[in-house]
Amino acid sequence: MTVPDVEATADAFGALADPVRVEILAALWEAEGSAVQYSSLLEAVGVQDSGRFNYHLSKLTDHHFVAKTDDGYRLRPAGLLVVNAVYSGSYVEAPVREGLDVGGACPSCDGPLVGEYDEGMFRVLCGDCGDQVFMLSFPPRGVETRVDDDDALLQAVSVHARAHTRRANRGLCPFCGGAMTGSLDLDADTALPVSMLVRRDCDNCGVANRSSIGYAVLEHPAVAGFLAEQGLPVDAPPWRFDWCLSNDTVTVASRDSPRVTVDATVEGAETALRVTVDERGRVAGTERLPAEDL
Hints:
By secondary structure, the protein is α+β, with helices and mostly antiparallel strands. The protein has nine helices and 13 strands.
């Protein structure tokens, strides 16, 4: 794992410690990639004292949030990350949502699954026994902008979650962009109702992305194609599939060189898809089976 340069990072964060500097970044963001002349930027921010404005602008250029060019000022990638955090609501109090009807049943007790959002995390858990089956961070503004539409919120979380998994499955850390190494854990110690997991560990930031076997293969083209044949939307929420929530359809094929199979099923379908997962958490093969043979 990479050792972070905490002093340089703290120094850069200190350069943001004034609302005027954040307003400058927001004004450059609104320019949609075009360079902004000094006079136009000063007017957009609304600071009357040019000396004060110059001071704040210099802090942003010195710390690589803003670039000064012959055409004016532009956001640099570091500044873009700050603006993204601002507009996603990362640094303000997050809303709270409870009791969302997400559909699906608890793999432990067959009780109804419900969704909740608090402190920037979206969770799906059983309304009866309390078992948690899903958890992922989600931007607060994404919740606030869908406050009157539960279906839109659940769809947005699903799209976000599945994009997160696609990146991790391809070895790209969703958080820092570092390389991820995959492995199959057959005896995981977890609060989830599963003991067999696919792990993706980032070599740079050290984050560990853990998912059930079913959830890990959900984005594979063969699985996606099978589900599409059954008329399911491409970004159907993972908590809607029983085989993504438990070990019930997972079979250990080998422990010496860990390998498992998981049966992807759809209610009412005549066929199922058996997916083989190797020791690195990768899909090693698929096989169509009559659903009645499972």
